[in-house]
Amino acid sequence: MLFFLLLLGFYCTINAQTLGGRCRTPTGESAKCISVYTCDSIIALLRVPSKTSEQTKFLNLSRCATSSSGIPYVCCGTGLSTTQTVDSNNLDSNFTPNRAIPGNDECGYQSYNKIFNGETTALDEFPWMAVIEYRKSNGQKQIACGGSLINPRYVLTAAHCITGLVLTKIGQPINVRLGEYDTSSPNRDCFTRNGVEYCNQEEINAKIEQLIPHPKYSESTRYHDIGLIRLNRNIPYSDYIQPICLPEPTHNSRTGHLSIVAGWGKTEKGTNSNIKLKLQVPITDQNSCSRIFGRYDLNITNRQVCAGGLDGKDSCKGDSGGPLMRTLPSDDSRWMLEGVVSFGYTYCGTEGIPGVYTKVSKYVAWIHNTVEP
């Protein structure tokens, strides 16, 4: 039993804010994140002398947090019987549409709908974009990732933005900003054109209630690099804050199709941008992308999509978790989330090496199964 407690303690590094909060067990049951020492179902499973691989997998996937004193916390439900199995693939397959996620007639709308020309966004462009703020070990705050609002309570981002090395290298995610445009401005963002001043509404800062990385996320391979952030309250919509649409589970990215990536990441000057930027990138052939990253011993799967590969044009450090977007095939006035910025080559914008994005259509079922009212 001690071995598994140590195992749980080693991997349970999600966020102290999840202690006592809601979570989902590996079998999809809604439960609470509590101390492993007070969860009878997990303790009973830990005491099983010869565990099956499925039982071990259930224990590993049950982790949800670690307390400040190092006590592992688990998502404590009814547990797993000796005949029950854990198939995480079911999280990404059959599902019933979740009414908490807006339909295509209620999402992806922006009042700014002009032809793309240049890299600076308008004040109300891509109103679903979010900025994740972290608290460093010295107490200072830092912006390090992005995300996309998908309903009043949830932001979709990359798993590597909310679990793993980011927690030790940067700090704990503590806050999400919505309606942001210029991160250097403490109040409303404004600019003047032809003598007329244009301003947006003041951004909304929402605290984080729960961090939910995909249960099969692998930090070493970046497989299943997708996660959800549940905010501590519902966010009101406006011209500057709107949810983006999700793709259909059957959606396939087309090679050569132009999509948009946006964020506050590093620019060609080597510094992060204060202003929200956008970039048009072509979807790259999957086989070609696989060959390119195969040189670096990285395998690209059909749950990932590659885009870019043009000199000086790429998503970059700080854009992680942000959106790769395109308009809906059925309605070019509304936008959907095609991918989530995952990783790329060490040097951003290297010609011939595209960026890699988590393919959102492959995770629509998981999102619908995970989001709660």
Question: Which helices and strands appear, and what pairs or packs with what?
Answer:
Layout lengths: L1 H10 L10 E3 L5 E6 L4 H7 L6 H9 L1 E4 L5 E5 L52 E7 L5 E9 L4 E4 L7 H5 L2 E7 L11 E4 L2 E4 L4 E10 L13 E5 L26 E6 L13 E6 L3 H9 L9 E4 L15 E6 L2 E13 L11 E5 L4 H7 L3
Antiparallel strand pairs: 1-2, 2-4, 3-4, 5-6, 5-8, 6-7, 7-12, 8-11, 9-10, 11-12, 13-14, 13-16, 15-18, 16-17, 17-18
Proportion of residues in helical segments: 10-25%
Report the count of strand segments: 18
SSE succession:
HEEHHEEEEEHEEEEEEEHEEEEH
Uncertain residue ranges:
1-17, 113-118, 311-318
Class per helix and strand makeup:
alpha+beta
Number of helices: 6
Strand order of the largest sheet: 5-6-7-12-11-8
- Report the β-strand fraction as a percent range: 25-35%
Mean pLDDT: 82
Largest sheet: 6 strands, antiparallel, barrel
Rg, Å, rounded = 21 Å
Distance between the termini: 36 Å
Shape: globular
What does this structure look like?
The strands form four sheets. A six-stranded antiparallel beta barrel has the order 5-6-7-12-11-8. It has a six-stranded antiparallel beta sheet with strand order 14-13-16-17-18-15, with no helix packed on it. The protein has 373 residues and is α+β, with helices and mostly antiparallel strands. A hairpin with a 4-residue loop joins strand 6 and strand 7 (154-157). Helix content is 13%, strand content 29%.
